[in-house]
Design a protein that fits this description.
This protein is α+β, with helices and mostly antiparallel strands and about 325 residues long. It has eight helices and 17 strands. A hairpin with a 6-residue loop joins strand 11 and strand 12. It starts with a helix and ends in a 14-residue tail after the last strand. Keywords: Dioxygenase, Iron, Metal-binding, Oxidoreductase.
Length: about 325
C-alpha cells in the first residue's frame, strides 16, 4: 500500500502526530511496507478519532503472520495508540502466540489465568464481583518496568453495556500549557501496587493474605517520571494514573493531591478519548506506555469475560532534567 493510499483511508495525517525522528527505530513516517502479504489481504487502518484509535482490516490473527505484517501492526500501534481487529477467532493459545510476536510476556501476580496459558489473565465480572478497572488506569505501573502493551480479547459479553474507553496521554500532554509542561518535567511520582490491590479485597483467606504479602514485598512502591518519553517515537506523555499513582514525590502532600487531581481530571477529558463497544470476536491492542483505559461497569448483574495478554516493557524514562527525590 502506498503512502498516499494509506492516507486516503485515514482521517488524520501523519504530520499531525509530530513524531520525533530516531534513525535507530522503525521509520514511523512511512507506511510503504503496508502491502500485500502472503497470508492476509491488503492491510488498512481507519482512524476513529483525531488522537487515538483505529480499526485494522485485512489481518487474520489466528494465522501465521509474516514479519512484514507484524511490523505493520506495530507501526499502526505506534501511530494510533490503540488498534482494534474485528471478527477474530483466537483461541487462548493463539492469543498468547500473537502477543509473543511483540516481546516477552508478563505473568500477572494476582489475577486468575487461563488453564495451561499462564500469560493470559481472566477478567470475569458478574453480580458477585466487586468493581474492577472502573477507573482510569495504566496497567501494572507498580512495576519497575511497566508493560509495553496489552492485547484484550472479548470472550463473553453482556447484551448491552461493558464498553471500554482509552485515552491518549500524549494528546493530554500536548494540550497542557508550556508553563505546566516545564513544571511537570522535573517531577517523579510514586506508584503503589496496594492502591488497586488492597489486602481488604485480595486477602480474604489465610492463603490469600500470605500470597498478597509476598506479591507486595516483591512490588514495593516505585518512582516513575511524571512525564514519560516514548522509547520508540520520542513523544512525551503524562504518566500518572488513578489506578496506581499515590503521590508526587518531593513536594508537600496537599500540593501533590492538588496536582494529581488536576492531572487525573485533565487525562479524562473526552477530547483525548475513544470509546469501544465490544462485539464477539473483537481484539484490542494498546500501547500501555502512553494510554490509559477505563472499563465501564454498567452491565451488572450480567456477566462479562475478557482475556488479556500483557507484553513486557522497559523502565520509563523522563526528560533529562528529571530530578528523583
Amino acid at each position: 500500500m502506498t503512502h498516499s493510499s494509506f492516507q486516503a483511508v485515514n482521517e488524520v495525517s501523519l504530520k499531525s502526530l509530530n513524531f520525533q525522528k530516531n534513525d535507530n527505530l522503525t521509520n514511523i513516517y512511512s507506511y510503504s511496507d503496508i502491502s500485500q502479504h502472503s497470508n492476509t489481504a491488503r492491510v488498512s487502518a481507519h482512524a476513529l478519532s483525531p488522537h487515538i484509535g483505529a480499526v485494522v482490516q485485512g489481518v487474520d490473527l489466528n494465522t501465521s503472520l509474516s514479519s512484514d505484517t507484524i511490523r505493520t501492526i506495530r507501526d499502526l500501534l505506534l501511530r494510533y495508540q490503540v488498534i482494534f481487529f474485528r471478527n477474530q477467532t483466537l483461541t487462548p493459545h493463539q492469543h498468547r502466540d500473537f502477543a509473543k510476536a511483540f516481546g516477552s510476556l508478563h505473568v500477572h501476580p494476582v489475577y486468575p489465568t487461563v488453564p495451561d496459558v499462564p500469560e493470559a489473565i481472566v477478567l470475569d465480572t458478574d453480580k458477585n464481583d466487586l468493581k474492577d478497572n472502573a477507573l482510569w488506569h495504566t496497567d501494572v505501573t507498580f512495576s519497575e518496568t511497566p508493560p509495553l502493551g496489552a492485547i484484550l480479547v472479548a470472550r463473553h459479553l453482556p447484551e448491552i453495556g461493558g464498553d471500554t474507553l482509552w485515552a491518549s496521554a500524549t494528546a493530554a500532554y500536548d494540550a497542557l500549557s508550556s508553563q505546566m509542561k516545564a513544571h511537570l518535567e522535573g517531577l517523579t511520582a510514586l506508584h503503589d501496587f496496594t492502591r488497586s490491590f488492597p489486602l481488604s479485597r485480595f486477602g480474604r483467606t489465610a492463603d490469600e493474605r500470605n500470597h498478597w504479602a509476598d506479591v507486595r514485598n516483591r512490588n514495593l512502591p516505585v518512582e516513575h517520571p511524571v512525564i514519560r518519553i516514548h522509547p520508540e517515537t520520542g513523544r512525551r506523555a503524562i504518566f500518572v494514573n488513578e489506578g496506581f499513582t499515590t503521590e508526587i514525590c518531593g513536594i508537600e502532600q496537599d500540593e501533590s493531591a492538588a496536582l494529581l487531581s488536576f492531572l487525573f481530571r485533565h487525562l479524562a477529558r473526552p477530547e483525548f478519548q475513544i470509546r469501544w463497544t465490544w462485539r464477539k470476536g473483537d481484539v484490542a491492542f494498546w500501547d500501555n506506555r502512553i494510554t490509559q483505559h477505563y472499563a465501564v461497569d454498567d452491565y451488572r448483574p450480567h456477566r462479562r469475560i475478557m482475556h488479556r495478554v500483557t507484553i513486557m516493557g522497559d523502565k520509563p524514562v523522563g526528560p533529562t532534567h528529571t530530578i528523583r527525590s
